[in-house]
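#struct-queue
[09:14] JT: dropping the first one here, sequence first, then the structure tokens:
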Amino acid sequence: MQLPWDEHFYQIVIPAWQAYRSAEAHLTEVVSSKNEGLLNCARYTALREAGAACFYVHHFGEIVLRANPRWLSADVKRPDDVVRWLSQFCVMMRTDRKVDDVSLLRDVADALKHAILSRHLDERQVSANEAVLVIATGFGEMSYGEGKYGGADQVVIATRSGKRALSSVLQNVIDAWRRSADIPLPEVGAS
């Protein structure tokens, strides 16, 4: 069954993102329990839901390409074109600072899918699935306002240029999709 692009967005992409956000929230709660068994389980759950969200958000580009809605630029013909086109709408946490998170999300989805990337490594921001991990970060390790505060465990992407919170990358790419399709932006963190 081929869903229309907007149904796919609201019934597949957004629920996958919500499931990941719920797993991150649960991970934060479990950290304070000091129960290593629960913490380990919560880390794996967050990582699993992160992977699913990455796949669905990234591959939404192919859904849009196939549907070819009126708001998609006429010169977008291939998945790589979607990445380049969508990038013009992608900014850091609703500021005016452009970020390359659409490409980063593609690299993360590919790394999680293939474990080790062997092609175009010099162009990628990550090269293997080990670049996506659950860790606690310290002050100043990521940009101000990105990810969780207080050193809480979270899913982090170790890029060639530094650490990024996956939650922020997904938020930025989902916001880019909303901007491109002229869908109103809800509050940051809301669905």
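[09:21] JT: and here's the second one, same format:
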Amino acid sequence: MTPLRPARRAGPAALPLLIAVVLAAGCAAPATTASTSEAKAGDVAPPLSGTTLDGAPFDLSSFRGRPAIVNFWASWCVPCRDEFPLFKAAASKYSADGLTIVGTVFNDDEVAARAFATKAGANWPSLIDPVGAHARDWRVVAPPQTYFIGRDGKIVSRQIGQLTSADFDRQLAAILK
């Protein structure tokens, strides 16, 4: 029979690991009862309302019956910057068809976002999302992420990552019909 040895105590080298484990446990997101499903094609678009960068109220539901594009973006996001001209061109070209474009600022400083939108010539509303509620509702992890919504209020397609011109044209055609 092997004799029992006294338990070894953790030395000072283990302290940083112990602190990291305790801090990580304390930073874990609290349990939530919200749905974990993603906003995907065929689903009714989640609610989207709030205040725009210009200080105006906005509610996507008031645009039901019109095709819509919802784009989650940030001023620090290079792919977001690169795809803005696509939105600008579509806003101009398809305004007579009732196209609604709305941006949602993702994890960005409001002043920086406003400056970028102004410089880029964005003439569509962009909602402020200071606590990330819109991003959670729409299941956005990182920008850019874009939703194309049909006149019936249902998501027709979703683009995760930067839109190419071909991607944009194909998905836009599907909601303009």
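[09:30] RK: nice, looked through the second one.
[09:31] RK: Residues 10-36 have pLDDT under 50 and may be disordered.
[09:31] JT: good to know. The chain has five helices and seven strands.
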